[in-house]
Amino acid sequence: MRAAGPGIGAAWLGLALALAVLHVWSGSDLGLARMAALVGGAGPESFADVQFREAMLPRAAMAGLAGFALGLAGSLFQQVTQNRLASPLTLGASSGAWLATIIGTLLAPGLAATHGAWFSFAGAIGAFGLVLSISRLRGLTGLHAVLAGMAVNLFLGAVAGALLLLQSPYFGHLFVWGAGDLGQSGWQWPLWFVPRLAVAVLVAVGLGRVLALLRTGAAGAEARGLHLAPALGAAALTALFLTAISVTAVGMIGFIGLLAPNLARMSGARRPLTELAASAGLGALLLLGTDTIAIAVSSVSRDLVPSGAAAALIGAPALIWLARGRLSAQDHAQFRLPPGPARVPTGAVAAIVFALVAVPVLALVAGQTDAGWRVAVPGDLVLSLRWPRVLAAAAAGAGMALSGVLLQRLIRNPLASPDILGMSSGATFALVATALLAGASIFEIGAGIAVLGSLAVLVLLLWFGRRHGHAPAAVALIGISLGALLDALVKFALASGSEDTFAILGWMGGSTYRVSPTGALTLAAAVALCGALILAFHRWLTLIAAGDDVAAARGLAPRLARPAVMSLAAILAAIVTAFLGPVTFVGLLAPHVAVMLGARRAMAQTALAAVIGALLMVLSDWLGRMMLYPMQLPAGTVASLLGGGYFMALLVFRRRSG
Fold this sequence. Notes:
By secondary structure, this protein is an all-alpha fold. It is 75% helix and 1% strand. It has a two-stranded antiparallel sheet. β1 and β2 form a beta hairpin. The protein is globular, with a radius of gyration of 25 Å.
């Protein structure tokens, strides 16, 4: 396809103007003639006039400016990394900026109000640096960087969620803002945005030669006199700054920075500066379009629709489409678990057995009271309150760990887990949607609804992945996209900020607060039954993990076995989600730790991962009750903080030592 010429550029400009008109018209009751008069300088005569001038016009301007910045940032990321899946979202920068802004607002609200962009910038740099530490420079060109970025997103999201739960009466507005809020009450933010964007654009234009040289490869660029590290740093910092000012002004809006550069190349942009310009323009168009949809839906519903959620509803399916047929050979390669001993050492076995007894006992007998710490055999009342939580936490941890083992072995990807592949999101969306539509408590909805949601994600995962033979990269990318889509739908549902919303937010932390004795026993029985089925079919896991050809040669039909066992993984994740809420990182971490301790065979890894997951959740539930007494944190949130932090450190250490 030829590069875009002046005629196409004029067509794009006309489309932008038409879309801007549609945007402001969709949120106003005024006629086009009156709108034109107000734009031309006529004074406001009614509330609708004021709303148009001080709300709708600034919102349209903000949508265009933020979309322009995100499209430009995405193009810089993709040209620097030569990875068409790189973006502020997939490399963790947006989540880092959001978390840093929340922390700044909590610790220094006055400073954050005046210099919030610097908090966001520092957070974006930190998150991107973490992804870079995990994937290294060479890893940025492939899917591993995206998987690492999504793992970082999970971890930072868990930290942000914990802060929001602790400060929910004061930070409620941050939930909607975190989902992307383009609403304006004047021209303050657009005017704040323009000079900062202008500086970034000038820097980006100055990087044109650098980007052109990078297309010849690292060796070719250095041979032509380019100092690679400063050049890459300047481009990355510019993209991170653009991300930071966007998050500061409008919150987290994903996928714009991913889609715009890909669409720019499809429309014929080939040269670096042309691609930058086209990506920025298309980013503005995309965000104007998605915000127009958000305004239209909000006008017919009772609640606000976050603009970022609307962008994800369009961007997540587009990511699946863009990835079809575009995965490189290295993305189809098998991901391998980190090395470990051939078998679990005797000392490790003794330590695990001791912990298996000590941790539940600690959770039952040790605790804080108004008089301080107390270690004593609990009375009947206290015991009746504690043992269901301990049992439910142990069962949930074991269930998520078993689900993680199944997924990692079946798709041969050590970064696979039910939370990253969207199965937990499917169960969460099904439960939240049912609760809000039926007016029921989310704690009373049966596990059957959650199982249906999780299995629906699995069906889509297998359907979209069949073209690539269920290659690890394809399945992981599709799962990430489906998870992002469902998370956006949940944000749609929870955007009202009502009492029900905060109750659901607490449940979404993975809470054992309201687990009854019957519920705990039911969850434990269901996980035990699934665990027994997994051990009975452990040979399938061994054969499929060795490759489809090997499995077929040994008499196993992978096309039938893989969906059957993955269904079991989805059911496990759904059952845990139904009883406790979404639990992240346990299914990702426990299988890794089991292998590192020496459980390399399928049966050994399954059993040890279940024990590790159970211990992690019981410990997390106890810490959640004790750390901030009399306040409490959900067990799933604490597990995400502990497991996510350890997992991030593990990935960084393994990469550096490897």
